[in-house]
Amino acid sequence: MKFTKTLLASALLSTSLSAMQVHAADVPVGVKLADKQELVKGGEGEPATLDPQKIQGTPGSLRAKDLFEGLYSEGEGGKLVPGVATGYTVNDDNTVYTFNLRHDAKWSDGSPVTANDFVYGFQRLVAPKTASVYSWYAALAGINNAQNIIDGKAKVSDLGVKALDKYTFQVSLDHSVPYFVKMTVNSAMYPAPKQAIEKFGDNWTKAGNLVSNGAYKLDTWIVNEKMVFVRNHNYWNDKKTIINKVTVLPIKDSTVEFSRYQAGDLDVTSFSGIPTNRYKELLKTTPDEVKVTPQLAAYYYDFNNQQPPFDDVRVRKALSYAIDRSIITKYVTGVGEIPAYTFTPPSVDGFTAKQPEYAKWTQAERNAKAKELLKEAGYDKNNPLSFTLLYNTNDGHKKIAIAVASMWKKTLGVNATLENQEWKTFIDTRNLGNFGVARDGWVGDYNEASTFLDLFKSTNTSNNAHYKNAQYDQYMAQAAKANDPAPFYQKAEDLVIDQDMAVAPIYQYSIKRLVKTYVGGYKPNLEDNIYTRDMYIIAH
């Protein structure tokens, strides 16, 4: 073994682990706790599922963080903290990770969480019968045979995972992935309760059936109204958990969410819970409740690269150039967002994408080039380009769509008809490619450039733009095996955005949340991995 990772400082990871960094509600000395420890928070829309291996999007992932726990979790400032794992060892070439699991980790039904539960969870992720839209994540992590299993060329049992014993879980990779442990924070790599899944099938995530291993368990799920979680007293760190009950409300409209927050119906809003038109007012009236922090996330529009006329790069570039990103971030969103001309955010560790040529132009120059390109593609006032712009139901997405459609109409004479769909329908429509242009957003699963750039690989099932370029795939394959992947990441950025404009980057997100002053333990980080188990209610 090259060296051992326990809870001591790590030389390999930029994030350090220390014995004091365990998830718990650490209440400062002198703070008096309220008798009633209950939290109500915004949950974006209604999630399509609570199945960790099938979750897609923030509505599901933010709920999963309360219900389940993987090998590691993320703390304030992005620090890795132990979850079910207490530490790990890695071999000389960083391709075999052996995790030591805590012996007191239990499922909500009282049964132990074992290495076999992680083996089962990882295998479910890649199994074709699971049909997980996140199966590519295992291949990105470099797990042996992951892609072969996804492609139907190998058996699920051939995946590079094994239980060495009840509390020792080993993962073998086909190449060095130095950020592999960071990737285990994502819900796709959570353990799975085999007995419950085999007993209830697709209904295993319903209230009364769901078996979870996080700080909370599911008590109630009333679709489009609320989810209620209660303490999982079998959780290994339950004695350090303070909030007894969590109610999550599926509110899509930030204005509605803000009104309910003001009325006292919510203690914590969703990550987009501050309406733009109230931001400056709130900074004056309740500054202690405003929590705006950077987010490792991109907001963008997908062009369906396989569908005319969006299979023409001239059309894609014209539409992208004509979006005035500064107007969007200043007047439409207006709460700390940054105009985006690259896909990879600048906050990513180890790689800063250089700005493409079009980012250096004035908006007038971009508009002029857009007109030229669209005319070359055969569209003008006599033959206007018309299509539908699809977005999921949300007041913020609607405002952006209205603004962008207006820009396209004014600059290019383009007729974009707006269409909104509820979250579950929207992701199905987008996954199937039944659209021309669609709203999209991506929050990094870990702090490394591949979490963004891997999206555009031909094999990635989250490649909603349906972009396919063999040269791009090659650049990403080279990056995965390089000691210094940055040059290949840059080539990939140049190709997918500057040359092909597979998607139109619009802005880099900020987390804009309102948190009542009586809520303690709110620990923001770039990936917005927020856990209720860290929080507590102060007497007020």
Automatic annotation (TrEMBL):
CDD domains: PBP2_OppA. One of its GO terms (biological process) is peptide transport. GO terms for molecular function: peptide transmembrane transporter activity. The keyword Heme does not apply. InterPro entries: Peptide/Ni-bd (IPR030678), SBP_5 (IPR039424), SBP_5_CS (IPR023765), SBP_5_dom (IPR000914). Residues 1-24 form the signal peptide. Gene3D superfamilies: Dipeptide-binding Protein, Domain 1, Dipeptide-binding Protein, Domain 3, Periplasmic binding protein-like II. The keyword Signal applies. It is found in: Cell envelope. Belongs to the bacterial solute-binding protein 5 family. This is Oligopeptide transport system substrate-binding protein. It comes from Marinomonas pollencensis.
